[in-house]
Write a structure and sequence with these properties.
By secondary structure, the chain is mainly alpha-helical. It has one domain (11-102, 109-142). It is 53% helix and 4% strand. It contains six helices and two strands. The chain has a two-stranded antiparallel sheet. It starts with 13 loop residues before the first helix and ends in an 11-residue tail after the last helix. The model has no long low-confidence stretch (mean pLDDT 85).
Length: 157
Amino acid sequence: MTQQSDSVDGPLNWFPALMGWVLPGLGQVLLGHRQRGFRAMGGILGIFLAGVLVGGVDCVDRREDALWFYAQAGAGPIAFATDWANSALLKSGKVGRLIPSPPSNPRLPPPQVTSFKTVTMSNEIGTLFCFTAGLMNVVVILDALRRQPASPRGWGA
């Protein structure tokens, strides 16, 4: 026997799902599932920020790591803001100095990288953390899309 909340015949919650992309977990909060939403928010934002802390701002890069960025973008505007900070501050040379790196194509001029670029395994770990946070938020968004609103009896599930 199925419960009422397991029904797949209900309408899709497009607005809470969109708000869940804008701020992870907000979709569940808008549906009345506050504990679930705040836990998801803390987990997703915590993992994303831990990734940026471990790997640096350059672990989110839509130009050099486009495939990774597609999943990182699932975390919402925070991924785009981090990518902007990477492009506007680090890659432009406003923070740190730009140094030439070995060219991948000898016919092109050598690319310039910032002296703040992390090139160790910590950058890869940070990229993976942000990637994981983005995919986790996609799951939370899909949950908000199908979840039934909570009854108005308190702080909900």
